[in-house]
Amino acid sequence: MKNFSLLSLLLLGIVLGCALRIPGSYGGRKPFHLHDVADGGDAARRASQHLLLEGLATDTQEQAPRARDFYERSLQVDPGNPYAYLVLGRHYVEQGEGTRALGFLEKARALFRGESAVHPDIEAHLAGLRGAALSASGDTAQAASLLLHAQRAAPEQWSDGQLSADELR
Amino acid sequence: MARPTQSRRRRNRIPPRRPRGARRDRRRGRSALFGFSSWLWLCAAAAFIGGVATGVQLKRLDHTVTQRFEGRLFRVPSRVYSAPAIVYPGLNWRQADLLGVLVRLGYREAESGDHSLEPGQVRWGTQRARVHLRAFSHPRRSEPNRDIELRLAGNEIESILELPQRREVAAVLLEPEFVGAYYGLDRAQRELVRLGDVPQHLIDAVLAIEDQRFLDHHGIDPLRVVGAFLANLRAGGIAQGGSTLTQQLVKNFFLTSERTYRRKTLEAVMALLVELRYSKELILEAYLNEIYLGQRGATAIHGVGEASRLFFGKSVRDLSVAEATLIAGIIHSPNGNSPYRDRATALARRNLVLKHMWKQGRLDEVTYNASRSVPLRLAHVTHEANHVRYFSDALRQQLPEVYDAAVLENAGLRIYSTLDTRLQRAAAAAVNEGLAELERRYPRLRGDKPGSRLEACLIALRPQTGEIVAMVGGRDYGFSQYNRCTQARRQPGSAFKPFVYAAALEPVGGGPAITLANRLDDSPFQVKLTHSVWQPQNYDHEYHGNVSPRSALENSYNVATARLGHRIGIDRVIQLARRLGIESHLPAVPSLALGVAEVTPLELARAYATFANGGIRPDLRMFEDLVAENGRTLARRDIAFERALDAGTAYLMTSLLEGVVDRGTGAGVRATGLRGAIAGKTGTTNDTYDAWFAGYTPELVAVVWVGFDEPKSHGLTGASGALPIWIRFVQEATGGEVRGAFFPPTNVVEVAIDPISGRRALSGCPARETELFLLGTEPVDTCPGDGLPAVAGHQRDPAAWVVDRFLDWLRRAQ
Known about the structure:
heterodimer; A: mainly alpha; Serine Threonine Protein Phosphatase 5, Tetratricopeptide repeat; 9 helices; about 0% strand; B: alpha+beta; 6-stranded mixed beta sheet; 24 helices; 31 strands
């Protein structure tokens, strides 16, 4: 009986713990856009995010080299900004530099672990971009499963198998 | 009687004998005739030879002229620029040294009465600052002129508004700072301008004062020559030159300044040749780019483009009439009339030029009067900092091979580097002040001669991107160009130990050799070598028994580390160090574990950056773009990295190195009040030849080395010699507040252990502390122990185990 009570207490704790994490989860969510998180964090992070947004806007105008410069300036302001690595990973996928993209995506993944609240779509974007990068590098088998995962997790943005600058912006 | 003689001679066909006098007369007559013609011939021959010689000489001079004009007209040293400063709301503008950046960029304070600011002007108030940012060109990030207002709240920038719309902007980039150049022997610097970019009032000003009939003459101006001759005659010496612009250009291009007739003749002839071959526009453009206009320190300033930047901090196309006339006025005597030396003389010369322009109809009266009353406002001259040249030298090594010294000294390339000028200045100050402090504290360290002085180097980089942001290779580049950051291979001592621990903690071949719960043996230890026995000692000459890896590294125990290195195999340590970026020779000897291999500070910084970057090794880069004179990108260095160590091991290492700073040999960091995420390791060699501190925050890696160039003991440890310099630098770099944190990856777990036994601590365990483990490597034995293998739950009541864990969790959460 005593054990049963303690187990109940434990379960209650777990439920409470999950409840406390609700602000970080996005039930019935709308797709992730970078401008949704542009004003979060400290001053350096905000500036970094705005530089990323400028870069993405430039990227939509098919000025990829200039866009990359914005992304790199974004890193100069906040070298620990995971979104900057995600965006750069996407940029290199678009440029067909799969191997380079994988490095940025791995770095992004590592840094997102330190973020307090991450939109669930980020996981889909990381998977989808990784799939696209692997596809560009010739690893089509693994690429297909990752892209499929991204399509299921974030169908609005990954239905065509790619993530455009505009969709991310 | 004479006749028969004659007939006989005729018969004998002998010519009659002429009287002596007649013969002489005839010879005289013939000689006179020959003398005249020979002179003629001589003259003709001389004229011919002279003509040929002149022709040859002319041809030679013409060849000289065409070779120069049709080849590369100017040698332009390639310039190195810093990374651009970025200004954004929330930035601490004092800490970011915004004013200093603007001053170094040549921005000038606007007069309080000016409502509209010109590009390159700034007006600083108490709660707002207005800056008219200058345009700058770059293959990818060209920026137009932008008039902005910074709203200030104390030390912070509250918001940035772009004028005139007052649109709020999130960030603005300042143009990169010029930090140095690859000069040739003449140390001449110029910024080439095209004639089309030169404002007409500057052309008019130069012509008005230097050569008013430039467009009418053919290289020589006879009227000016006569005028100068008369003026000199009146003055009783040389008071006025008669040289045209073309002659001045020819003199600067091809001749010396000696005052001889030969030189003047050559000058005149070559001026005629130049005028014969080339257009006035080309000659004028060449002149405006060539003319010497003063000095910036040891560097000679040539051309109106460079002078415009030097004096007014702006592009030549933005010069006002008053500014253009000031430049034209100093051509006559660039140093004597320099506004930095004698403002009154410079202003008098400017007004003289204005007067000439007005009199010659090149300026209307209103502009003349207005320009005469404009006060002199000069940009602040910043000399190229000597310490940056260590960076520039190292950067040269990173450029593609085709850009050798000759190309860099002549081709006018622009190199956009990764240098952060604020951090570079902080690094230079930390090295110089730190060494001076050490010499004050330990007078024995003061060297008698410059070559025997205590030296240091500091290198700083961003671990995520591999950008080298600061590099000071010694205390005085002027004395020694030897870059101790990149060229000096020195023993790192204990700063090498983290590679031993990383090799032991890394899960290879089925798992790690140790976990942080293991105990290391710090008792007497010896290794038999071929001809000797190696027996490491601790710094305190004591042994500490069974110690945790954390304690062994925090306290830098040699014996425990040597045992560990020996146990896992020195090859494994070498292999890991290689992956992390150590390229120097690493001998496979037991003492390698204690850092006897010689490495460069740059290598060490790269290896530590891999720890800071979660096991991802960045490619180090010192430049982003190499751009040709015509604006084409010739080379680019992108951010690149590669995983060299698993994220979990990298995090364990960071945690251990944080302990060094919090409690161990690097505790001096905390003693100064520096807070935040900091990890690092001291290094001291046995003979105290070398003192090191290699440390990092989440955003910055810095390595400091202190020692003498010649092998000589200084008696300093890493903590007493290198660490104070590191702290000075990081305090200045971060403003005392370290940004960011080190985040554990998902494969690292925190477990409470008994610090004595290293077992997992459950409730009832007398002592407990938390330790980090790679997932799956946590200790299974428990404290209090039951003697049974304790894969928890297998041997115990499951419910009791769950309760135990839950209570543990609650305790930790409190």
